[in-house]
Amino acid sequence: MLSWPGVSQSIQLSLFTGITSSVIALALTFFILQANWHKQGWQKIERMLSPMLAMPHVAFAIGFAFLFSPTGWIYRVIEGLGFTTHNAPSLTQDPYGIGLTLALAIKETPFLVLMSVSVLKQLNIDRLYASASGLGYNRADIWLKVILPQWLPKMRLPFYAVLAFGLSVVDVALIIGPTRPPTFSVLIWQWFNEPDLSLLPRAAAGALCLLILALITLATARFGEWLVLQRWRRWQISGAKARQLIGNTGYLPLVIIPLCIIPILIMWSFAQRWRFPDMLPSRLSDRFWLQELPTLWELSFNSLVLAVISTAIALILTIGCLEYRDRHQRSIPFWLIAIPMVIPQLSLLFGLQVTTHFIPGQHYWLWVCWSHILFVFPYLYLALDGPWRSFDVRLYQSARTLAAHTGKHGGK
Prior knowledge:
This protein is mainly alpha-helical. The protein has helices at about 5-35, 40-55, 55-70, 75-80, 100-125, 125-135, 140-155, 155-170, 170-175, 185-190, 200-230, 250-270, 285-330, 335, 340, 345-355, 365-390, 395-410, and strands at about 270-275, 285. About 70% of the residues lie in helices and about 0% in strands. α1 (about 5-35) runs antiparallel to α8 (about 155-170). The chain is globular and about 65 Å long.
């Protein structure tokens, strides 16, 4: 595995794109929160998170390619304005993975913002504002020196999930990532699909190496957090500086790019002739839809059924675990739940697929549904854990009191 040509460059690409995109997403999340939290437009931003998260990674990657490729719509606009794009750099399949890094950062920032909502509700931001404002801190200082040291440790697990995903992503990297060499996860995927089964140990070695890289990266991130917040914390106690932080419009790329991607995908699905640098297709046709529609119906139905079943089972398991924890003050160790989130998916699925070979029968639906639940359950648990903890148990006590009173007095 180590002697494969270009494997060191592939590992470097994976580390660069995964770490850089995760740090950018975390920084964007912090800037968006500090500039817009509890302001007039925050409700609008919060409502836009779900549609942005709901866009599949593959659809986003294909639309990103149609938007930023050398013949994409952005370059068509530049040509239409009279500028040349012959020597312009491309953000799709560039050798340094810049496009892949930006795409991952844009796609993962809404997830971190959504996870931050429940975290900030637990921190009692109003009380922190009142205390820090009385000491002369402005909004930027409060967020940087008071809220950040409390917000970052609680965002540890979501950030680790984004970091592990960035290191091991395959579908997005296949579409817009580098190709010569590809990222390490794509290289392992290519090894895994080799028809010669005698080469399977090489793919296993690559999956194990990816797991080790991910664990080292997560440990480094934890060490960096300790250095910034505990060891080198002089910046936290240096007093008010009346600084200003950006972020008032930091959420706009997260909204504009997905909004541009959707109509571009629709136009390309009907475009029969679209020459560069024309802004719009010169000829439209529905023959592509008619050719693929019978197959798409079957595939879409299978995907929908798998999604509904796996999500419903994971939701029931999540609610059961949270209710059991609240009633008995005992729960599954959180690190055990978080394993599918912080371990590279490629390494985990490789082992899962090999394990299925030891069980007789071809239970495809069972194994695919189980693999979905394996990843959906931790995300649901993480998303609902904050609201469950912030729920006021006095409401339960009041409800029980009213129910007992109602039963005693015959329904009054």
